[in-house]
Amino acid sequence: MRSEVSVDIQPSHIDQIKQTNIGLVYRLIDQYEPISRIALSKRAQLAPASITKITRELIDAHLVKETEFPELGFRGRPAIGLKIDSEGWQFLCIRINKGSLVIGLRDLSSNLVAEDEQLFSVSQNESFLDSFADKIDNFFLRHQSHLERLTAISITINAIVDPINGVIHSSPDYNVKDIPLGAFLHQRTGLPIFLQHGITAWTIAESLYGAGKHCQNLIHLVIDDHVGAGIMTAGQILHAGNHSVVEIGHIQIDPDGEPCYCGNIGCLETVVGLKPILEKARELAKSRPDSFINTIINETGTDNIESLTIDSLCLAAINGDALASEIIHGIGEKIGRIMAIIVNIFNPERILIGSPLNKAQHILYPAIQQQIAQRSLPGYSQQVDIVAAQFDNSGTLPAAASIKQALYSGELLLELMQG
Ligand SMILES: [Zn+2]
Q1: Domains along the chain?
Q2: For residue 251, how far is its CA from the centre of ligand 1 (angstroms)?
Q3: 79 CA to middle of ligand 1, Å?
Q4: Each residue of 235-246: pLDDT tens digit?
C-alpha cells in the first residue's frame, strides 16, 4: 500500500505482531467507541495488561482519548471508555478525474474539512507532476486557515497503477507513462503517500462504511464508462497490493462483437459500458417508433448525441417504456452470465452494484439474479443478495478509505506514533 523511499529491513516478527495488535485495538475503538478497556480486551482477545499498554501508547500519541460513559459503572460512578482522538490530525485525499482533480482535506475520522475541484489538463509526464504539485499548493493557499497537522496524502485514479511503489503506469484519460507520483510527492512533502485504483479504493470504502459493511466476502461491480470490479474475500481485497483490479469488463461476452481498446473483440465493456448502451438504444429505437426513447432523442428539436442519457433511459424504463425496459433487462442478463462464474469462484455474501443504472434497479437486479440462479451452484447463488453501492463514483471518500485501512493495519499508526 505504501510508497516511500525506505532503507528499513523487513520488520521482525515481533514488530509485525505489535503493529497488527495496535491496528486491531485502534479499529475496535473506532468501531465501538466509547468502549471500556475490559470490553476491548474481550473483543480483541488480548490480555488486559496488553490492552492497558497499547491504549496508553495511543493516548500518549493523542490518537485515542478517554471519555466518560453515559451509562453508570461500578458504585454509580460514570464508566470510563475510550474513543478516537481525531482533533488536529488531518490528511489530504485526491481524486484524479478525467480533466480535473478533486482535493479534500479530512480529519482522522474521515470527516471532510474542505474540498474543491480544479481543472487538470496535462499531457506529458513532467508537466503532470509539476501541475499536480501546483494544484496541491493552490489548495493549501486557499484553505490555509483550516490546515492543522497533515499526516498523509492518499490518491485514487482509474488507471493502471502500482500501489506498492506509487506509480501510475498508464491512464485512459492522460497521455502518460510510468509516473512516479508517490516518490515525487513524498520527496516534496515528507509524508506517507498512498496511491490506489479508484475501483479498489471504492470497494474498500463500501466495506468500511457503506453497503458492504460487516461482509467478509463481497463483489463490487462497477458499470460506468468503464466496467470493473472489486472483490473482497475473507475480509481481504483481492489484488489490493498489485497492479490490477478485477478486469471483469474485459471478459469476452460477444465473439462477433465490437473491437475493444484492450485489443480483443466483444468484451463485456463494449456491450454494457454506458456509451455502448446508449449507442445501442439509439439504434434499436429506429425500428420502434412507439418507444419513448425516440421522443427523448428528438426532444431538443435536433438530434444531438447528448440528448439521450443513462438517466433518461432509466426514467423511460421506470415509466414503463417497453424498449427501455428490454434494454436494461438485456444488460442485466449479460452481466448476470459473467457474475454467475464469479459467484462460483468467490461465493460472496453480497454483490454491490455501483452504477448510474441503479435508478432502474427493479429491472436490472432481477435479470442479474435470474442468470446467477440458473448458472451457478445453487448453494452459492441462493445466499447472495444484490444491492446498490452506497456511494457513487465521485468524491474523495474512497481515498479516505485507503487511509483508514492503513490505520487499521497498524502501519500508518506506528508511523504517526513515531512522530
Ligand atoms: Zn477489452
Answers
A1: 15-71+79-84 (1.10.10.10), 89-204+395-417 (3.30.420.40), 214-388 (3.30.420.40)
A2: 7
A3: 58
A4: 888 876 665 677
